[in-house]
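Hi everyone,

Forwarding the result from last night's run.
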Amino acid sequence: MSLAEKICLSAALVFFMTGLLTGIWKYRHMARSPEATAPVYVDIAHRSSLMYAFAALLLAALSVHSVLAAWVNTVAAVSALAFFAFAIGTYVIHGLLQDTDNQLRRPHRLGQRLLPSWITGLFMLLLIVGEVGGTLVLGVGAMLGIWGS
Protein backbone atom coordinates (compact mmCIF):
# COMPACT_ATOMS: atom_id res chain seq x y z
CA MET A 1 0.00 0.00 0.00
CA SER A 2 1.40 3.40 -0.97
CA LEU A 3 1.96 6.24 1.45
CA ALA A 4 -0.67 8.33 -0.37
CA GLU A 5 -3.24 5.57 0.08
CA LYS A 6 -2.37 5.13 3.76
CA ILE A 7 -2.70 8.86 4.37
CA CYS A 8 -6.02 9.04 2.50
CA LEU A 9 -7.51 6.09 4.40
CA SER A 10 -6.28 7.49 7.72
CA ALA A 11 -7.82 10.87 6.89
CA ALA A 12 -11.08 9.15 5.91
CA LEU A 13 -11.24 7.55 9.36
CA VAL A 14 -10.45 10.82 11.16
CA PHE A 15 -12.99 12.76 9.08
CA PHE A 16 -15.67 10.09 9.54
CA MET A 17 -15.13 9.96 13.31
CA THR A 18 -15.27 13.77 13.37
CA GLY A 19 -18.58 13.54 11.50
CA LEU A 20 -19.96 11.04 14.02
CA LEU A 21 -18.83 13.09 17.01
CA THR A 22 -20.09 16.37 15.57
CA GLY A 23 -23.35 14.54 14.92
CA ILE A 24 -23.66 13.95 18.66
CA TRP A 25 -22.86 17.63 19.23
CA LYS A 26 -25.49 18.62 16.66
CA TYR A 27 -28.09 16.31 18.23
CA ARG A 28 -27.45 17.75 21.71
CA HIS A 29 -28.11 21.25 20.38
CA MET A 30 -31.24 20.09 18.56
CA ALA A 31 -32.56 18.29 21.64
CA ARG A 32 -32.22 21.47 23.74
CA SER A 33 -33.45 23.93 21.14
CA PRO A 34 -37.14 24.95 21.07
CA GLU A 35 -36.86 24.97 17.25
CA ALA A 36 -34.99 21.62 17.24
CA THR A 37 -32.05 23.21 15.44
CA ALA A 38 -28.31 23.38 15.89
CA PRO A 39 -26.06 26.38 15.25
CA VAL A 40 -25.24 26.74 11.56
CA TYR A 41 -21.57 25.84 11.84
CA VAL A 42 -22.22 22.85 14.10
CA ASP A 43 -24.44 21.51 11.31
CA ILE A 44 -21.88 22.39 8.62
CA ALA A 45 -19.05 20.76 10.60
CA HIS A 46 -21.10 17.58 10.91
CA ARG A 47 -22.08 17.36 7.25
CA SER A 48 -18.75 18.41 5.82
CA SER A 49 -16.85 15.90 7.96
CA LEU A 50 -18.97 13.08 6.58
CA MET A 51 -18.64 14.39 3.03
CA TYR A 52 -14.87 14.78 3.29
CA ALA A 53 -14.55 11.25 4.73
CA PHE A 54 -15.93 9.84 1.50
CA ALA A 55 -13.92 12.31 -0.57
CA ALA A 56 -10.79 10.97 1.16
CA LEU A 57 -11.82 7.44 0.14
CA LEU A 58 -12.13 8.63 -3.46
CA LEU A 59 -8.64 10.14 -3.25
CA ALA A 60 -7.36 6.80 -1.89
CA ALA A 61 -8.90 4.98 -4.86
CA LEU A 62 -7.41 7.46 -7.30
CA SER A 63 -3.98 7.13 -5.67
CA VAL A 64 -4.13 3.34 -6.06
CA HIS A 65 -4.57 3.65 -9.82
CA SER A 66 -2.28 6.64 -10.38
CA VAL A 67 0.81 5.99 -12.48
CA LEU A 68 2.54 9.15 -11.26
CA ALA A 69 5.55 8.99 -8.96
CA ALA A 70 4.71 8.00 -5.39
CA TRP A 71 5.96 11.35 -4.05
CA VAL A 72 3.71 13.24 -6.50
CA ASN A 73 0.68 11.22 -5.39
CA THR A 74 1.56 11.79 -1.74
CA VAL A 75 1.98 15.55 -2.15
CA ALA A 76 -1.27 15.77 -4.14
CA ALA A 77 -3.19 13.75 -1.54
CA VAL A 78 -1.80 15.69 1.41
CA SER A 79 -2.56 18.97 -0.34
CA ALA A 80 -6.23 18.15 -0.81
CA LEU A 81 -6.64 16.44 2.56
CA ALA A 82 -4.96 19.25 4.49
CA PHE A 83 -7.44 21.75 3.14
CA PHE A 84 -10.34 19.38 3.84
CA ALA A 85 -9.07 19.25 7.43
CA PHE A 86 -8.57 23.04 7.62
CA ALA A 87 -12.13 23.58 6.39
CA ILE A 88 -13.57 21.17 8.96
CA GLY A 89 -11.46 22.79 11.68
CA THR A 90 -12.74 26.23 10.72
CA TYR A 91 -16.33 25.01 10.87
CA VAL A 92 -15.77 23.44 14.29
CA ILE A 93 -14.20 26.66 15.60
CA HIS A 94 -17.12 28.75 14.34
CA GLY A 95 -19.50 26.16 15.81
CA LEU A 96 -17.81 26.37 19.21
CA LEU A 97 -17.65 30.16 19.19
CA GLN A 98 -21.07 30.60 17.57
CA ASP A 99 -19.67 33.82 16.17
CA THR A 100 -21.22 33.78 12.71
CA ASP A 101 -23.73 32.05 10.50
CA ASN A 102 -21.69 32.94 7.38
CA GLN A 103 -17.90 32.96 7.62
CA LEU A 104 -17.61 34.82 4.31
CA ARG A 105 -19.76 37.75 5.44
CA ARG A 106 -17.79 40.93 6.00
CA PRO A 107 -16.39 41.90 8.35
CA HIS A 108 -14.78 38.50 8.86
CA ARG A 109 -14.93 37.40 12.49
CA LEU A 110 -13.22 34.87 14.66
CA GLY A 111 -14.89 35.06 18.02
CA GLN A 112 -14.86 38.71 19.05
CA ARG A 113 -11.93 39.51 16.78
CA LEU A 114 -12.25 41.04 13.34
CA LEU A 115 -9.95 39.50 10.75
CA PRO A 116 -8.38 41.42 7.89
CA SER A 117 -10.46 40.73 4.77
CA TRP A 118 -7.43 39.55 2.80
CA ILE A 119 -6.93 36.55 5.12
CA THR A 120 -10.21 34.91 4.13
CA GLY A 121 -9.61 35.64 0.43
CA LEU A 122 -6.09 34.20 0.57
CA PHE A 123 -7.27 31.14 2.48
CA MET A 124 -10.02 30.50 -0.06
CA LEU A 125 -7.56 30.84 -2.95
CA LEU A 126 -5.12 28.41 -1.32
CA LEU A 127 -8.00 26.05 -0.53
CA ILE A 128 -9.10 26.05 -4.17
CA VAL A 129 -5.57 25.42 -5.42
CA GLY A 130 -4.91 22.71 -2.81
CA GLU A 131 -8.20 20.83 -3.08
CA VAL A 132 -8.75 21.12 -6.82
CA GLY A 133 -5.07 20.84 -7.72
CA GLY A 134 -4.42 17.82 -5.50
CA THR A 135 -7.52 16.04 -6.72
CA LEU A 136 -6.74 16.87 -10.35
CA VAL A 137 -3.21 15.48 -10.07
CA LEU A 138 -4.45 12.22 -8.53
CA GLY A 139 -7.29 12.06 -11.05
CA VAL A 140 -5.02 12.57 -14.06
CA GLY A 141 -2.58 9.99 -12.71
CA ALA A 142 -5.42 7.50 -12.22
CA MET A 143 -6.92 8.15 -15.65
CA LEU A 144 -3.50 7.62 -17.24
CA GLY A 145 -3.23 4.36 -15.32
CA ILE A 146 -6.71 3.18 -16.23
CA TRP A 147 -6.91 4.29 -19.85
CA GLY A 148 -3.23 4.50 -20.76
CA SER A 149 -2.51 0.79 -20.77
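Residues 135 and 146 are 16 Å apart (CA to CA).

Cheers,
N.
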